[in-house]
Design goal:
Elements (H helix, E strand, L loop, with lengths): L136 E4 L4 E6 L2 E4 L13
Antiparallel strand pairs: 1-2, 2-3
Length: 169
C-alpha cells in the first residue's frame, strides 16, 4: 500500500501492551532494513531481552564484515551478571583488538583470587608517580625501573626504598 508501516502491531490503550506467545517455533524477524526496539519508559529495564530456560541464552551477532555491536549505556553503565564466564574474543589482529578503557577513571578487575595474563603485560611508563596506595605498581620512566607502593612508601621493585626524587618519593 506504499505505507512504510506495511504491518503494524499496536496497543491503542495507554495501559495496553502486546504479548506474543509463539510456542516451540519461536519468533523470527527477517528484514533487509533495520529493526528498532524503542521505549520511552524510565524503567531501568525498559527494553529487556531474556531467555529463562535452563539452556536458554541471548545471542547478539553482526556477521557482516562491516557489522558491529555497539552498547551505549549512557551514565547508567553496563552491568553483566552471570554464574558462568564472560568471554570477550576478537579475531582481529590489531594491537588493541580487545580494549577496555576508562579515560576519566580506572579499570577495576575483581577476580577473587588472581588474574592470569598469558604472554606479555605491558605497563605504559610515566614520569610522575600516582598516589601511593598500597599495592600500586607503575613503571617510572625517569628512573627506568618498576616502583611499588608498600603501605604509604614507594619502593623500587627489588625492595630498595626510594629516596627523595626517586620512584615517587
Amino acid at each position: 500500500n506504499g505505507n512504510s508501516e506495511a504491518i503494524r502491531i499496536s496497543a491503542s490503550d495507554f495501559n495496553g501492551g502486546v504479548d506474543i506467545d509463539s510456542g516451540f517455533s519461536g519468533v523470527d524477524v527477517d528484514t533487509t532494513g533495520r529493526v528498532d526496539l524503542n521505549s520511552t519508559s524510565s524503567n531501568f529495564d525498559a527494553i529487556r531481552l531474556s531467555a529463562t530456560n535452563f539452556n536458554g541464552g541471548v545471542f547478539i551477532s553482526a556477521t557482516n564484515s562491516n557489522g558491529g555491536v555497539v552498547v551505549d549505556a549512557g551514565s547508567a553503565g553496563v552491568d553483566v551478571d552471570t554464574n558462568g564466564r564472560v568471554d570477550l574474543n576478537s579475531a582481529g589482529n590489531n594491537s588493541d583488538a580487545i580494549r577496555i578503557s576508562a579515560p576519566s577513571g580506572g579499570v577495576v578487575i575483581g577476580a577473587g583470587t588472581s588474574v592470569t595474563i598469558d604472554d606479555v603485560l605491558k605497563i605504559t611508563p610515566r614520569s610522575t608517580a600516582p598516589i601511593c596506595d598500597a599495592g600500586t605498581i607503575y613503571y617510572d620512566s625517569d628512573d627506568d625501573d618498576f616502583c611499588v607502593c608498600r603501605g604509604s612508601t614507594w619502593y623500587f621493585i627489588n625492595g630498595v626504598v626510594a629516596i627523595a626524587g626517586e620512584c615517587g618519593a
